[in-house]
Structure prediction request, 403 residues.
Amino acid sequence: MKHIIILGDGMADWKVKELGDKTLLQYANTPYMDLLAKNGRVGRLKTVADGFHPGSEVANSSILGYDQSKVYEGRGPLEAASIGVELAPDDMAIRCNLICIENGNIKNHSCGRLETEEADVLIKFLQEKLGSERVHFYTGIQYRHLLVIKGGNKHLKCTPPHDVPGQPFMPLLVKPEIPEAKETADLINDLILKSQKLLADHPFNKQRVAEGKDPANSIWPWAGGYRPNMTPLTVTYPQIKRGAVITAVDLIRGIGRLAGLRCINVEGATGLYDTNYEGKAQAAIEALKTDDFVYLHVEASDEAGHDGNLKLKLQTIEDLDRRLIGPIYEAVKNFDEPVSIAVLPDHPTPVALRTHTNEPIPFLIYYPGIEADSVQTFDEIAAVDGSYGLFEGDGFINEFMNN
Ligand SMILES: [Zn+2]
Prediction:
């Protein structure tokens, strides 16, 4: 049996008055999810362990069975894995935004629209001027880059720059959480201040200011950690000889790579409602011909949830069903080797709240010959009666892989 997990990021939601007190999964027209739920089995999964924030990196790696108390290292190391930077055991990897500072305040966390190619020029310039045996800058995507500090201490209090628009940056500089981290905090703060001097005079930023655009005039490191000690899925589940991850999101790509999966890039996969659903479905079908396991992640529903856009989120759920789950189901049912399909969100992103919650999510599992339970539709409410009950930890992935 081969296995595919289809993940609609942030797809779960709350009951919405405008929808007659239905959730979006209840209200949306989703014939394929409902068919798989009806012919398969359903349950709920706690994807965010107590004490952890409901980030996508936490929820997605929990779905794959990783115990966050053992592997959680934050974004930096996952982004390092995503862009292919190998970390030595004493390397601390930390997310490094290019941000815009105006009159001593953080104007924004992303300098508006910054293209990767533009940012690459600035990151290479910083590496040339500030890089050393210990300090390495790596280009990531758009405004999201990476700083690796050899021998860095990760016990730092950093501020995510998107949380503090308009605030003075000086009081928000990095602080040590333990005395041993003071040297690293001092080093990073020195890099921030030096980057501001260097970037202010860079021709790219002078040009941007002349054009009335926000200059990328400071680095802002946050979320540092070490390489997570993640056992590859091929070791935990020897029936996986080869597996793949398909996603537009760097954090998920990093988790996939650390879990021992190969990354498949799909042209036109944007992470938004206009993503290439058909291309992602086709890539998954092709991967299932050569691989035993595919993790197919679609970000669109989460973004619509963050935008608080009910209509758009409904559309992303219906698109996932009709343009992605449907074609995959229709293709793999003719495979010689049966394919087990799981569909689930990683966490709710309620449109009413516009951010993630840590409530349990519904999941379905379907494969040819599975004994169906009584649940007829795929949604948060029906899943309460699912025969799997409520799983936590690696309960879902163990059930999915071993049956
Ligand atoms: Zn998510």
